[in-house]
Amino acid sequence: MALIVQKYGGTSVGSVERIQAVAEKVKAAKDRGNQVVVVVSAMSGQTNRLIALAHEINAEGDPREMDVLISTGEQVTIALLSMALQRIGCPARSYTGGQVHILTDSAHSKARIQDIDGARVQADLEAGRVVVVAGFQGVDQQGDITTLGRGGSDTTAVAMAAALKADECQIYTDVDGVYTTDPRIEPKARRLERITFEEMLEMASLGSKVLQIRAVEFAGKYNVPLRVLSSFEEGEGTLITFEEESMEQAKISGIAFNRDEAKLTILGVPDHPGVAYQILGPISDANIEVDMIVQNIAADTSTTDFTFTVHRNDYKKALGILQATAESLGAREALGDDTMVKISIVGVGMRSHAGIASQMFEALSSEGININMISTSEIKISVVVDEKYLELGVRTLHEAFSLDSEAAN
Ligand code: ASP
Ligand code: MG
User: Fold this and answer.
1) Which reaction does it catalyse (predicted)?
2) CB of 92 closer than 8 Å to CB of 86
3) Nearest residue CA, atom 9 of ligand 1?
C-alpha cells in the first residue's frame, strides 16, 4: 500500500462542482489501494478577497491578525471537501494546520515550518480515512496562527509528505505538468516527463510559476518525490526527481524567462579597491535585490564601468541611489533602462556538453537579437535583452535546442 499526499490548488477547488470532482479523484486514488492525505488551498480568489477586505480597514493590518484572517479560506475548503468525500461513501476528516501540529516560527505571512506531528494523521489513515489538511497555515510555539507565504499550500503538501514519509507528493494544478517553456509564448512547448530538482529550482526562480520555490527546495532536501499534474485532465504530469547517472540527459531541459528586469549602469567610476561595495552597498541597504553584475575596466584602466540588474519595481529607487553614488564617487554618469527581460536556458545536461553557450549566442545573433548582459552557472545561462525580443528570443532558443522534438526529452 502506498501513501500519497495530493495537493489541489485554488482553481481546482474553485466551486462546489470542482470540489465534488476533486472528491471523485481522491476516492479513486483511495480505491486503488492507497492511503491518501489531501492538502487544499482556498477557493480561487478567496485569499485575495480577504486581503482586500483587510486593506479597506487598515492598509497595514497587524501581521498577526492578517494571518488569522487569510488562513480562513483553507478552513472552508477542507470542510467542504471532507463533506463531499463522505457524501460519496469515502470516510474523511478535515484538520487545520494547528490541529495536526504544523509548527512554524512566528514570522507572520512568511512563516517556516519547523515540525509536524504526523501521529493523528497516521491514526486516521490506519482507520481507513482520507485526511484533508488545510494548506498555507500553521501555528507557532504560542499557538498563534501563521501563514507560509502566497502559494504556501504547496509547501504544506511537501512538508506533510516528508513528515509522513509518503511515497509521492502529487501537486494537482491547472496545468498538466512542467513545460519546456511557457506555451503561451511558444505553442510548440512540450510537457517534460521528468525534470531534476535543480532544474526545477532554476525554472521556478526564473519565473515559471508552476510550483512555489520553497516547496521544491523542501522536497529536494527531504527526498520527497514530487509530481505536478492536472486536476482537469488525466495524465502522468511531470516527475521532479534526482539526477540519475544513467539518465541520458538532453542538453537543455527548458527555457525560462523573466519580464521584470531593469538594468542600471554607472560609467567612468575611478577604479580602486572597494568600488563595487561603494556602488552596491547603498542599493542593498535600501533592500533592493541585485541579480546580474558586470564590471569592465575602461581602456585607460583608471576608471571602470559597472552594470547590474534589479527588479523593475525597484528601478526608480535604485536609479536615484545610483545617481547619488555617482556624484559622491566622481563618476561620469549613472543611467538605466527598465525595458529589459532575462531569458535563460536551463539543463543539467550542460555539465557534460561543451559549446552550449556559443550555440545559444549563435542562435540569438542569427535573429539579430542584441545581448546586453550574460551570466552563467553550472546548469544555466542567462542573457539580458531588450523586452521587444522576448517572444522571438524564447522561440529561437526553443528551436535551436530542439526542444520541440520528441527526441529531446
Ligand atoms: N490560498 C493561499 C494563496 O492564495 C495559499 C495557496 O493557494 O497555496 O496564496
Ligand atoms: Mg495557489
Assistant:
1) L-aspartate + ATP = 4-phospho-L-aspartate + ADP
2) yes
3) 150
Atom of ligand 1 nearest to the CA of 74: 1
Q: Is 10 annotated as contributing to ligand binding? A: yes
DSSP string spanning 93-145? EEE-TGGGTEEE-S-TTS--EEEE--HHHHHHHHTT-EEEEESSEEE-TT--E
State the pLDDT at residue 247: 60
pLDDT tens digits along 226-249 = 999 998 888 999 999 887 665 666
- CA 162, CA 279: separation in Å to the nearest integer? 43
Please check if 277 is assigned to a binding site: no
Cβ(97) – ligand 1 distance below 6 Å = no
pLDDT digit string, tens, across residues 119-164: 999 999 999 999 999 999 999 999 999 999 999 999 999 999 999 9
Domains of the chain: 3-174 (3.40.1160.10), 255-408 (3.30.2130.10)
Task: Give the distance (Å) from ligand 2 centre to CA of residue 168.
Answer: 20
Instruction: Report the percent of the chain where pLDDT is more than 90.
Output: 83
- 136 CB less than 6 Å from ligand 1? yes
Judge if the beta carbon of residue 135 lies within 6 A of ligand 1: yes
List Cα–Cα distances, 372 to 190, 261, 321, in angstroms: 29, 12, 22
- CB 14 less than 6 A from any atom of ligand 1: no
- 191: which residues sit within 8 A by CB, 6+ positions away? 176, 177, 178, 179, 235, 237, 238
- The answer to whether 285 is a known ligand-binding residue is no
C-alpha cell at 383: 542573457
CB 152 less than 6 A from any atom of ligand 1? yes
